[in-house]
Hints:
Layout: E1 2-7, H1 19-31, E2 36-43, H2 46-52, E3 56-64, E4 67-76, E5 79-85, H3 87-90, H4 108-123, E6 134-138, H5 144-150, E7 158-163, E8 171-172, H6 185-191, E9 192-193, E10 196-198, H7 199-206, E11 209-212, H8 215-220, H9 224-227, H10 231-236, E12 241-243, H11 273-284, E13 293-300, H12 306-310, H13 313-318, E14 322-329, H14 331-343, E15 348-352, H15 356-365, E16 368-371, H16 381-388, E17 391-395, H17 398-403, H18 409-414, E18 420-422, H19 427-442, H20 444-456, H21 462-475
Parallel strand pairs: 1-2, 1-6, 2-5, 6-7, 7-11, 11-12, 13-14, 13-16, 14-15, 16-17, 17-18
Antiparallel strand pairs: 3-4, 4-5, 8-10, 9-10
The structure holds adenosine-5'-diphosphate and alpha-D-glucopyranose.
Amino acid sequence: MIEVLSVASEAYPLVKTGGLADVAGALPGALAHHGVTMRTLIPGYPAVLREAISGRVIYEFNDLFGAWARLIAGRFAGLDLIVLDASHLYDRPGNPYLTPDGRDWGDNWIRFAALSWVAGKLANGLVPGYAPQIVHAHDWQAGLAPAYVKYGPSDQVKTVITVHNMVFQGHFGADIFGRLDLPPHAYWESLEYYGGVGYLKAGLVTADAITTVSPTYAKEIRTPQFGAGLEGLVNARAGSVYGITNGIDVEAWNPATDPELPQSYSANTLQRRAVNKAAIRERFGIEATDGPMFSVVSRLTSQKGIDLIASNVDWLVSLGATLMILGSGDGQLEAELQTAAARYPGRVAMHRGYDERLSHLIQGGADAILIPSRFEPCGLTQLYGLRYGCVPVVARVGGLADTVIDANEAAVDAGVATGLQFSPVTSEALGEAIQRAVELFRDQKVWRKMQRRGMRHDVSWDASAKRYADLYASLLGQERDDHDRD
Ligand code: ADP
Ligand code: GLC
């Protein structure tokens, strides 16, 4: 067994703002089948502590970056967690990163330095009997963890950083460096970033391996368009960069057993989805038309190309389709979509907010899901769409390019299409893709075939978990057993 400490700022089902939580929540279970024990170090936000309060205290700090704190270990909500209970850092309502009025917490640099510092200590034997061999950090919030390991006493522990989104970098002023408890030479060697301190940059420099969440994104981040200023560094480390596509939790996302669906179904009983579609229609006042019901389940941000959806609403409605939107985020994008919905009562509906249960119903009832992202490291909603027969219509970028097979003529003839791709990521190209989807939907035989094909596509974690397990083993210089090989 390989013992891995995962360091993540969110994990489903305890705290989630996006796909990172889904990954951090599902990967440990998947790795268990590949000879890896993964425990997750996570901040003790209120929602986490509510579960963890009954756990075992394994360590107490008299002064962790300013106040008393402790570590609580146990199995909570199906996850093996080490919870960092530090009320001065994490006992705050709502979103893990933002104040109630939507700004970054001013002390995020301490909140996430502390998380990574603790990971470094755990790697160096803080708790007797617990000896992780690998520290696996996720995103900038855990970016300093590989640095704390590297500048700590042990050179046995190996580190991996996974980039879920290159744009979020944890960039702070140089003045904080003195409070990070790292040796002075670490600044120029690893942390310095455009005159300040870069947490993600530090992780990319110091980790033994860098992974990102799809092969295409692993290539894209080597270019200025997607590298967000870090492309030079990624290129310099190209031999240590791996693109491993995310999977999804196929138990939690299973249309045959999903408790959120009024009607369960499988690839062989697709006609039953109509009951779920009717449930969406009824709940949100959407009329029955001959066209497909498109959907959106997304953070409403420019990354996700939501403005392109707003500019296609008139077109989509003119083609006889309907649209169900679930999302929240950027105020202006929310307002644009709400205005569009108000313009077309009965044709376009919007539920503003974050609603995990409704996201299942939409995937289980809508005909297609629109994902016109400008960049998408992996994307999970297209994977849920495939699994649920909610045909993904996606921009050809990042993980979207890697996971959806476009319904061009050859692919339709060969019966291998699972969705629609478009490029470039413009309003016009999205409009054409919407039109293509409407036309394909007219031939229900072809559409059903595409749904079925998607539902049979392997979106589980299995293959990717094995790749992570192989990567850990190779970092540790271990040979894997034959049954673990390709
Ligand atoms: P990202 O992490 O960039 O937001 P992903 O596609 O990787 O994109 O993951 C998004 C996750 O968040 C998915 O599980 C998706 O279903 C979920 N999600 C996004 N917006 C909402 C929402 N408004 N309500 C419920 N779930 C949402
Ligand atoms: C990020 C990316 C998304 C990816 C998710 C999980 O939020 O934006 O594309 O699926 O992380 O890796």
